Amino acid sequence: MKKKKQIVLVSLSVGVLLMLVKFTAFFLTNSNAILTDAAESIVNVIASSFAFFSIYFASLPKDQNHPYGHGKVEFFSAFLEGVLIIIAGIIIISKTTYNVFYPEPIKELLQGAFLIGITGIVNGVLSWYMVKEGKKMNSLTIVADGKHLGTDAVSSFGLIIGLVLIYLTNLSWIDSLISFALGFYIIYNGYKLTRISIGGLMDESDIEFVKNLLKHFNTYRRDEWIDVHNLRVQKYGETYHIDCHVTLPYYFDLVKVHQEVSDIDKAMNSGDYKAELFVHADPCLPECCHYCNMKECPVRKEPQTINIEWHIGNVTKNQKHFDKD
Q1: Quick one: which of 102, 111, 136, 253 is 20 to 30 A from 164 by CA?
Q2: Is 323 part of any domain?
Q3: Which CATH number is 243's domain given?
Q4: What's the CA gap between 264 and 277, in Å, rounded?
């Protein structure tokens, strides 16, 4: 958690510095496109500030009111950042529209391009580092902040190309065209970020994570685990909460069932993620015999005729695998 706070503090400090550089470039050039980039830097600073708070809040231990912990706040952080990005994009487009009808002269383009280039390089390097570390720590807040900085870096480099074109062609309307393009690009990225955060808040299923989880589960699968169904995953900060039903031979005693559940827990936690597992043990029924892998089952009613692979199509259903899928 300490490393997360350090990364966000670095992002916040760099964001403030780059914001000042970009506004300096705007006052030098009077370019709407540069103002677009500078306005987004304000969002960077606000978002990093809230990201720091959300990481602190997510680190608080579970309590009576938050039995799953406080990790969901990271989705609120990403949602706020996405909304701020969209608002920045709308303001940028509005300002650019005004200047189409009331244009202002543009000057000192090369100096402005140089300053924007420096900010783009810094944001690009910081974005790469934050996304890499955020994925390692399974932190949506750091990944979202890093991707936002990546968007900022891409728009900065596009802006440099535009400023050079204006300098070479002396066509000032290119400034407005670039500003419009960056404004819509910023809004689109804000939408993507809010979409991810809303999905997390509503416990939308992470299909890729479930597929990866099942790869581990199938790798460590044992004959005693007749089937797994009603699998559900929720994400709280860096921790996944997984609950499912597992069918076990009905003649297992409580000690044996507990041991099997513990082994299932180890299997599901064999990946590069943190998971808290809740398993409901179901007794097998005669209808399970046709896909049961138990080699010497004392109560088998019919021979095994099929070997069912666990995949997202059957483990997420709330039923045993009676349909022989």
Answers
A1: 102
A2: no
A3: 3.30.70.1350
A4: 9
